[in-house]
Structure formats: structure tokens, C-alpha cells
């Protein structure tokens, strides 16, 4: 049996997950129970589409609760007061793509916080992994379907 290293999650990411978990457990569970009660009151359960839908919704919600709880239980919470000397979880970096000359600003976050539209990339993504532990002025290479891409760290901030 291989022991897996715990995934890292920032304090702010863990707090966000705890908040979501609390909402699902305290608010959504009660709403779902009421919805099931109302659907059950409509009579024959074998032909009750509202009841079936409510049961499916409940199952999806319970799966979400379990997934969030698993993530929190099996993650190492790291301080997101990132250093500005070296790229780490929580760092906001400005990088230059040598091939295109394009400069991008990205934040390195844990995989469950990643949202490319918001400029948040996972520490496990190719760029995130390549940038980790680098300093301003350092270059790094990543393998992409289009070939090797080279980037330079221009700036690191919190």
C-alpha cells in the first residue's frame, strides 16, 4: 500500500470549503427534508416525479457533503501568507511567455480552488508546478501539446 502525500489547501480555501459544508449541512439538508416531506404528501410514491427528483437532489447534495468533508480531512492546510521571495501556494505571479511575449498575472492555489477565469491556477497544473519555488528572474519550462513552453517569473506578490 502506497501512502499518498496529503494535498495542500490554503487557509482561505479551507475556510471557504468549511463555509460551504456548513451551509449544506445546516441549511440545504433542512430544505431537502422539507422538499421530500412535501413530495411524499402528494401520494403514491411509485408515480411521483417530484419525490424522485427530490431524492436525486438529496443524493447529489450528500455526495457533495462527503466530498468536501473528505477534502478537508485529507488536506494539509498551509498558510496563504505567501512569501514574495519565492513562488508558493497563494502567490500571485506575473509571468512572461517567451513564445508569445504575452504577460499574464496568475494566482497559485490548490486544485479545488482553481478557476482559470479568475486567474487562479492549481499548484498541480503544468504552469503552477513549473513556477513553484522559483524566484523573480527565474525561467521554467513546461511540456505542452504544442511543444515546450518557456516562461520567466517577472513578479511575485501576495
From TrEMBL:
Q: Which residues form the Transcription elongation factor GreA/GreB N-terminal domain?
A: 8-77
What Pfam families does this protein map onto?
Answer: GreA_GreB (PF01272), GreA_GreB_N (PF03449)
Gene Ontology molecular function terms on file: DNA binding; RNA polymerase binding; translation elongation factor activity
Annotated signal sequence is none
InterPro entries found in the cross-reference section: GreA/GreB_C_sf, Tscrpt_elong_fac_GreA, Tscrpt_elong_fac_GreA/B, Tscrpt_elong_fac_GreA/B_C, Tscrpt_elong_fac_GreA/B_fam, Tscrpt_elong_fac_GreA/B_N, Tscrpt_elong_fac_GreA/B_N_sf
The UniProt entry's GO biological process terms, in alphabetical order, are: DNA-templated transcription elongation; regulation of DNA-templated transcription elongation
* Sequence ranges assigned to domain Transcription elongation factor GreA/GreB C-terminal in this UniProt record: 85-157
Q: What keywords does the record list, in alphabetical order?
A: Coiled coil, DNA-binding, Elongation factor, Protein biosynthesis, Transcription, Transcription regulation
Functional summary from the UniProt entry: Necessary for efficient RNA polymerase transcription elongation past template-encoded arresting sites. The arresting sites in DNA have the property of trapping a certain fraction of elongating RNA polymerases that pass through, resulting in locked ternary complexes. Cleavage of the nascent transcript by cleavage factors such as GreA or GreB allows the resumption of elongation from the new 3'terminus. GreA releases sequences of 2 to 3 nucleotides.
Q: Which family does it belong to?
A: Belongs to the GreA/GreB family.
Among HAMAP family, the record links this protein to: GreA_GreB
Q: Output this protein's name.
A: Transcription elongation factor GreA
- Organism placement in taxonomy: Bacteria, Bacillati, Bacillota, Clostridia, Eubacteriales
